[in-house]
Specification:
6-stranded mixed beta sheet, binds manganese (II) ion, 500 residues, alpha/beta, binds zinc ion
Length: 500
């Protein structure tokens, strides 16, 4: 994997090396192994905590260089808050907070994975390790001159001292694959659009073959044959040919209905003839965040050999203004046979998804489809960057997504659908038009998608606010966040996997 930081597990009994990271709760209590390691330094920590108003709040830190009486070059104390309140997901944040204190360089780090009540559970230690890796991620492959401070990555060897090494390793074996999936998604979102165009994106997705994923790449000719006129209309103004990639992981029982994930992959969105303003247009390299998530998710499921049949499908296009580009007023015929009047060529993501959703629903008859798309600016107006917008025709699926959203911290907020919204996209010339009026823009976009899912249980996640450019967090300092990989991995693990 591309990240330089190496995370491993060692027993409590092994002597700490280099930098030492320890945890205390909101009463400044340490576990017994930690207290032993700190020895006489406990008094100094108490005094420093008082002087610094350090109260052990969750993910707050106290930092000591060359601490007297401790066998460490540096001591970092991380607060956990009230230990009895800690949920599994909080351990990700604690790992992130610890990694956030590390500076570039390769000095060894020992993290003592202990709470006041005793050793962290294997699941908690694994989450801690995952948090370290997610925080340490840095997309720096295009910086040829790395300044000592900010630009260099942390390439330290990080050891988590745990009570039960084999159990922690086992828990992290699975979590580590999920982190890899998140990192794959982040890398794809962060890549520049001159590097990551549809054909190159398809090539990268095809690398999942190594994990036993079946890959089918549909080129323009194949999509024409299928009648994917909605998707192809978007890409026709680009010199980069469009692609659809179908990824299949068959880890479940033979013949079991698959679960399906569909991603919008607009590798660059200028808006087309309805061109966008220049300000921040560069951000539109991230308009493939949905497709990036699906690739990262399929990696996670295949790498940890999930007992499920899963389909990932991504529509890859570039939306450019050109003599051959689609015009407002054009009418295209989608694979479903429904015709679409193009009102605004910048409402292109739904056109791409329309054909991919229809294709997946018909070809695989999945248990459900979840699509992810950086679809509308309107969802950011509604929800900011804290929640993705959730639209669904199925209450059970919506509730499950909401539950795993809370558990993983990748939260979703359900938005309405209904005939009053749906009629706003009726067209006077075709079966529908690709935009409604100004108000409720993320809802009419979802209504459009719903016209292509039939009765398949379906959820649409509008991730325009969460996939990229969201505020930095304890576990993400990257522009591309990889949002959705942990959410959907958990959805599968909780509700759709066969018993082990
Ligand atoms: Mn657009
Ligand atoms: Zn777009």
């Amino acid at each position: 994997m591309p990240d330089a930081v190496k995370v491993g597990f060692v027993p409590f009994s092994s002597a700490p090396r280099g930098i030492l990271v320890v945890f205390c709760d909101d009463t400044l209590k340490f576990g017994s192994t930690t207290s032993k390691a700190l020895g006489a330094a406990a008094g100094m920590i108490k005094r420093a905590a008082a002087a610094n108003q350090f109260k052990g709040k969750s993910a707050s830190t106290l930092d000591f260089l060359a601490p007297e009486g401790v066998k460490a070059s540096r001591l970092i104390v991380v607060g956990t808050g009230k230990a009895s309140d800690l949920k599994d997901n909080d351990f990700l944040k604690l790992g992130g907070a610890a990694a956030g204190k590390l500076r570039p360089g390769n000095e060894a780090v020992t993290i003592l994975a202990e709470l006041p009540a005793g050793a962290m559970k294997p699941k908690q230690a694994a989450a801690l390790a995952a948090g370290v890796r997610l925080r340490a991620y840095k997309f720096d492959r295009y910086k040829t001159k790395k300044k000592d401070g900010e630009d260099a990555a942390i390439d330290a060897e990080i050891s988590l001292a745990v009570g039960d090494v084999p159990a922690a390793k086992k828990a992290f074996a699975s979590d580590g694959h999920i982190v890899d999936g998140v990192i794959i998604a982040r890398d794809l979102v962060n890549e520049p659009p001159n590097v990551l165009f549809p054909v190159e994106f398809a090539r990268r997705a095809s690398q999942l073959r190594k994990l036993g994923v079946d890959i089918d790449v549909l080129d323009v000719k194949a999509m024409k044959k299928l009648g994917m006129g909605a998707l192809l209309g978007v890409g026709q103004g680009s010199t980069q040919p469009s692609r659809t990639v179908i990824m299949r992981w068959n880890g479940g029982r033979k013949g079991d209905q698959p679960v399906a994930f569909v991603g919008k992959g607009v590798c660059f969105d200028t808006g087309g003839i309805s061109i966008k303003p220049a300000a921040s247009m560069e951000d539109m390299k991230g308009d493939m965040g949905g497709a990036a998530c699906v690739v990262g998710l399929m990696h996670a499921l295949a790498a940890r050999k999930a007992r499920v049949n899963a389909v990932g499908a991504i529509g890859l296009v570039e939306n450019m203004p050109d003599g051959n580009a689609q015009r407002p007023g054009d009418i295209v015929t989608s694979m479903s046979g429904q015709t679409i009047e193009i009102i605004n060529t910048d409402a292109e993501g739904r056109l791409v998804l329309a054909d991919v959703l229809w294709y997946v629903a018909r070809k695989f008859k999945p248990k459900f489809m979840v699509d992810l798309a950086t679809l509308t600016g309107a969802i950011m107006v509604a929800l900011g960057t804290e929640y993705a917008g959730l639209f669904s025709n199925n209450d059970q699926l919506a509730e499950r997504l909401t539950t795993v959203g809370q558990a993983t911290g990748e939260r979703v907020w359900r938005m309405p659908l209904g005939p009053e919204y749906d009629k706003q996209i009726d067209s006077q010339f075709a079966d529908m038009k690709n935009t409604g009026n100004r108000n409720g823009g993320s809802i009419t976009a979802a209504q459009f998608l719903q016209r292509f899912v039939d009765d398949t249980p379906w959820a649409h996640l509008d991730i325009a606010g969460t996939a990229m450019g969201a505020p930095k967090t304890e576990i993400n300092q990257s522009w591309g966040s990889g949002y959705g990989v942990r959410l959907l991995e958990r959805l599968v693990a909780e509700y759709y996997e066969g018993k082990r």
